[in-house]
Amino acid sequence: MNYASLQRTLHSCASLDQLKRIHAQCVTLGFLNFRNVQQTLSCRLLQSYKNVGKTEEAERVFNQIKGPDIVSWTCLLNLYLHSGLPSKSLSAFSRCLHIGLRPDSFLIVAALSSCGHCKDLVRGRVVHGMVLRNCLDENPVVGNALIDMYCRNGVMGMATLVFEKMGFKDVFSWTSLLNGYMLCNNLNCAREVFDAMPERNLVSWTAMITGCVKGGAPIQAFEMFKRMGADDGGPRLCADLIVAVLSACADVGALDFGQCLHGCVKKMSLELDVAVSNAMMDMYSKRVTPNEVTMLSVLTACSHAGLVVEGKVLFNRMIQCHYMKPKIEHYGCIVDLLGRAGFLEDAKEVIEMMPINPDATIWRSLLTACSVHGNLSLAQIAGKKVIEIEPNDGGVYMLLWNMYCVANMWKEASEIRKLMKEGRVKKRPGCSVVDVNGVVQEFFAEDTLLQVSAELCHLLKRIKEHS
């Protein structure tokens, strides 16, 4: 593999295992020892490790660079910022300056972002001085970073001064100042900045609407959302904007509008977004008085989504806060929730503590979970309970028989077959359904009752011969 193909492979790398193999090839082929490609390749590797969330591996790549240049240092600062370590980013910036490198605009932007996230105004002012000394203040990206840094530190006077002195202001400059006023809970000034913007994008609209909601002005948030649709020919949506508008719906009781947004969430496949899901639950919970059916629906959803903690909390609230007496269906949901997640002993404890006798469905749920997670001892208990309640359920016998066979417990497997024979229990045959010219036909295994044409029998025979 040559250097060009290695770079292409690294660019499209999506998994940690693949990345480690590429890294190993870089070392084996000696590319990281060549001065003319070491910096570029190392930065690519560092960036790739950052993308898969492996900060320590990325640090090791940087530490192996001989005499890192300004680009490499910038990659390191951005790595720490991306990993939520702005203080380490500032430390790296200090080391870079200590060895005598002259900062460029990219390094300065990373340093200013670090000062903003750390709320380190003193160092932020020092970096601002470097901007002026190195004549970088005309760069709009640097100007935007300065505004953001001062805004995050709550110094809106300096943020406004930097903004006013900028020769060129793009939509990000305006949005940075807007966000600053929102952080300071100054909704009026934020609105003035927003109204004065020559152009707006989805980020600026989202910032303004979110600020209205957080500032206790949900009606104003609705007006802004409506205006957004009118100005831009229909609202463009993102997860953050949906969360903000759903919160406004919850505050004013706009359930109908919230349900419309729920439809948008489904169309955009955002149901699994945690923030969006929480906002929808908050909206519905504030406007809908839960009953037994509501609780059952939400518990079922928690079970299928694997939300164990949330399901247990909801079940406890049902009893302690809403004073509801759980029915057998609610207990069944909790057993299914715990069983799916592998908490089999907990599921068994729930069954044993039930104030009502568990039915076959609950024991069957536990048995299925034991089969999935390979707990044979508990499966035996659950299986015997199902057989006691529904002795003609052939599926339970077969499930136990399969588990015994997998565990090489041939004696127990034989006993299961014997029980089936003595009780004249038959396994329900497998079934296939075929739609032929609008007519649905069912085919059961070893079925001799269905009138099948001779041509079909001949065709099936030929298929079997050639399979």
UniProtKB/TrEMBL annotation:
<keyword id="KW-0677">Repeat</keyword>
<feature type="repeat" description="PPR">
    <location>
        <begin position="170"/>
        <end position="204"/>
    </location>
</feature>
<comment type="similarity">
    <text>Belongs to the PPR family. PCMP-E subfamily.</text>
</comment>
<dbReference type="InterPro" id="IPR011990">
    <property type="entry name" value="TPR-like_helical_dom_sf"/>
</dbReference>
<dbReference type="Pfam" id="PF20431">
    <property type="entry name" value="E_motif"/>
</dbReference>
<dbReference type="GO" id="GO:0003723">
    <property type="term" value="F:RNA binding"/>
</dbReference>
<dbReference type="GO" id="GO:0005737">
    <property type="term" value="C:cytoplasm"/>
</dbReference>
<dbReference type="InterPro" id="IPR046848">
    <property type="entry name" value="E_motif"/>
</dbReference>
<dbReference type="InterPro" id="IPR046960">
    <property type="entry name" value="PPR_At4g14850-like_plant"/>
</dbReference>
<dbReference type="Pfam" id="PF01535">
    <property type="entry name" value="PPR"/>
</dbReference>
<protein>
    <submittedName>
        <fullName>Uncharacterized protein</fullName>
    </submittedName>
</protein>
<dbReference type="InterPro" id="IPR002885">
    <property type="entry name" value="PPR_rpt"/>
</dbReference>
<dbReference type="GO" id="GO:0016556">
    <property type="term" value="P:mRNA modification"/>
</dbReference>
<feature type="repeat" description="PPR">
    <location>
        <begin position="69"/>
        <end position="103"/>
    </location>
</feature>
